[in-house]
Write a structure and sequence with these properties.
alpha+beta, 17% helix
Length: 106
Amino acid sequence: MKIVVTDQAGADHELEGLEGWRVMEVIRDWGLNIKAECGGALSCATCHVYVDKDWTAVVGAPSEEEEDMLDSVGDVRPNSRLSCQILLSDALDGLKLTLALSAAKD
């Protein structure tokens, strides 16, 4: 399945992932600019993304724990999610999202 990721510079990338993988893992493994420091343990917010408005209902709302982590970054928006908390499934084939500046390695 595919996801479309817009990086911090505005370039779009079509990435291939497998069902059950965390979106963060796909973004990281394809070499995009994402820190992903905790590896998906929900103990940081360095995989912060903005879900495209057409996908927010499909992806769903963040958990309370995820919201707590998102509160630690200054660029949160209503469509913010941690990409480590989004698991790929057939329903998310074609998912579009944008990497937040706060997720950048540099």
